[in-house]
Amino acid sequence: MATIIQVTLISRKGYKPMSTLIAVENVNDFLRNKADYQQKAATRICAQRHMTAHDLTKYGYDGIKCRVYDREKIARENAERYAKIKAEKGWT
């Protein structure tokens, strides 16, 4: 089964981070070919945002973060956060 990796580009000029999801065989495969996968992710972000690689450098996107994207864990955290907000506002 493929592992989902979230790749996020970070700007040093204060622009919002941009991220995309990529599928890899496993984490070890990602670590061996990290530069290729990061390049693929940057190209994908450019296509999604209608930008070029030159635009990324112009806006200061020079940092990159990668993490394993666990859908179940994120859904569980979101549900807990929304339940807390509902309880605080009295929407329950």
Instruction: Give the class from helix and strand content and strand pairing.
Output: alpha+beta
Q: Could you spell the SSE succession in H and E letters?
A: EEHHHEH
Q: Over all CA atoms, what is the radius of gyration?
A: 17 Å
Number of helices: 4
Strand order of the largest sheet: 2-1-3
Separation of termini? 38 Å
Helix content: 40-55%
Summed up, the domain count is: 1
Our estimate of the beta-strand percent is: 25-35%
What would your notes on this structure say?
It is a single chain. Helices cover 51% and strands 26% of the residues. The protein has 92 residues and is α+β, with helices and mostly antiparallel strands. It has one domain (3-89). The model has no long low-confidence stretch (mean pLDDT 92).
Put the structure in a nutshell:
This protein has one domain (3-89). It contains four helices and three strands. It has helices spanning 27-32, 34-49, 53-58, 71-89, and strands at residues 3-11, 18-24, 61-68.
Observed structural traits:
92 residues; alpha+beta
